[in-house]
Amino acid sequence: MMFKEISPCLNTVFPNFERSLLTLAWGLQKQREVRQWESGSPDGPNSAAETGIGQTLLNKILKNTYSSTRVCTVQGPGSEPTIPRLSSNRPIALGQTDLFCLRVMSATKVIVLPTCAICRDDDDDEVSYVVTKCGHLFHTNCMEEWNRNEQNRGGRPRCPYCNTNLQAYDAHGCCSTNLIRLHQLMMHRVMILEDGKPTPEEELKGVRDNLNSIKVILNRETDKLRSTQAEKDKLEEENKSLKSTIGKLTHEVKLNKEKVDSRTVDLRNEKLNRQRDLAAHSEEKQRLLKQTADAKQHCQKLKTERSELHKELSKKKGENAKLQGIMASQTNLVSTLQAQSMQLNREREELVSNVNALRQSNQALLSQTQAAHISPQRHFNPVQAIQSNQLYYRGPTVEPAQPNQLVDILQSLSGGFLKLEKEYMGIKKLLEEKNERDGSKTDLEDSGNESIEIQAHVEAIGDRSVVAIQATPTPSEPHLDPITSGASEMQGLVHRMEGLELPSTPATAPMIDPRLFG
């Protein structure tokens, strides 16, 4: 509770007091409580300011309350009352042990004592006065102290107010001061009463009660003030910490803002990069979708081709089975041809040996004929000559070209069989290459082409063998009897060779080496 809140209460308790006087009393009480709290003592020392403020307060109270009253001063038992006049320039000096009784009178005069020019009435309890010859009034102690100070400085006694020389000589010639002591000047109790008003004791009790209540209020307000001050200090500390925290947070906010700005720029750049990547991925996706569609079409095409190849493969498998049957028959044919070739080789050797024998016999006959023509004189007896030439005359003459023709026939037959063997080796090689490429469409087409080539080779071999056999000249009838049997044998061999029929295979029947099957 502040002064504004308790001022109505103070105005009620002290209705004759001004607001400035109440404000002064409030300030004095607060100052005293603060001093007591700082010193740790409940009574605390009174300061000069507090004493001056108290005296000013008392003067204002007396002035405002008793300006129109009279003071009755009692100077002792049986003495007449002296009515001093209360002046605003000289308030009544009141001690701490004095008791004032206030009563209202119809006419009251108050005599105010003069003010000591030396001490200015600092000591209110001092009532011993002296008067100088110049008529000025001073405290006795103050004047004695003044005279001692003047003597110490080597001066003469003089009036502190008008500097009048106060030195005098008595009858004995001694130096003395012209000071007159005022007697029967005593401090008495003054009672000033007012009709219809409470006695000073009652008013003082009420004021004390009010003062105690005010003190309670002040103490309570002081406690609140202390708590408020403590809270204020705490709030100030918190304010300082909050200010430091705010500074740190402001700095962090600034740093975070810079980070956010940089991060925003990075995110914007990253967004642009992502958009470019997304566009590139979209193009890549479209390209992949197109490739997927093309791959699907290609896959469908491959499936169609695969089905066609499966059909072709099944067809080729049937043809292969057919070719294997033909191969078995061709194997038997080849075996027969090989046996016939071996038989022909043996017969050729026999023919060669017969031809050699015929050549030798022919040479012998020629030599004998030449000998007969050269020396006919050696034959004395015509009978012997006839007998020796009997064979010559009986058989036809042997032509010299006939053996050569037989040799040529044999050589041509041998060359034909050698070519047949070479063709057989070529067929075997083609079959091996065909087996390596078996299983694909190209291999099947190559197999068909190879089958055609094999058939062509076989037909060519047959044609060349027939032509060779037909082109062989038939030997003429021998003229000699000894070689008739050899000529007949050669003719029989020729007819046998002519009677041999080469196998005519279809174009799709391949020739397979029989040794491949054991």
Automatic annotation (TrEMBL):
Residues 218-252, 285-368 form a coiled coil. Keywords: Coiled coil, Metal-binding, Zinc, Zinc-finger. GO terms for molecular function: ubiquitin protein ligase activity; zinc ion binding. This is RING-type domain-containing protein. The keyword Metal-binding applies. One of its GO terms (biological process) is protein ubiquitination. One of its GO terms (cellular component) is site of DNA damage. It comes from the Eukaryota. PANTHER family: E3 UBIQUITIN-PROTEIN LIGASE RFWD3-RELATED, E3 UBIQUITIN-PROTEIN LIGASE TRAIP. Residues 116-163 form the RING-type domain. SMART domains: RING (SM00184).
